[in-house]
Design goal:
2 strands, 83 residues, two-stranded parallel sheet, 4 helices, mainly alpha
Length: 83
C-alpha cells in the first residue's frame, strides 16, 4: 500500500531530506509523487533542486511504491535554439 501525500512528506522530513521548517517544500514533492507526475521544475535550489533531494526522494518513493520523480531547474528543460 502506498503512502498518502502527508505521509510521503513526513518520510522526506523524518529522513532528513527536507528540514522540518521547510516541510512545505516536501509537500510540493509529495503532491507531485502521489499524483504520478513525471517531473518537478523548480527554482528552489536550497531544498528541491539539489542532488541530495533528488537521490533521497527517489529512494523513499521507490521503497513506498512510487516511481522516482525527476527534478530539474528551468534552465535544464528549456530549449533555446539561439545557443
Amino acid at each position: 500500500m502506498s503512502l498518502n501525500i502527508l505521509e510521503t512528506r513526513g518520510c522526506y522530513v523524518s529522513n532528513g531530506v527536507i528540514p522540518h521548517k521547510y516541510r512545505t517544500d516536501g509537500l510540493h514533492i509529495a503532491i507531485a509523487t502521489v499524483n504520478n507526475l513525471d517531473m518537478i521544475i523548480s527554482m528552489n535550489f536550497q531544498h528541491i533542486v539539489k542532488r541530495k533531494t533528488i537521490k533521497m526522494t527517489s529512494a523513499i518513493n521507490t521503497i513506498n511504491g512510487y516511481k522516482a520523480i525527476e527534478i530539474y531547474s528551468p534552465m535544464e528543460v528549456i530549449e533555446n535554439d539561439e545557443i
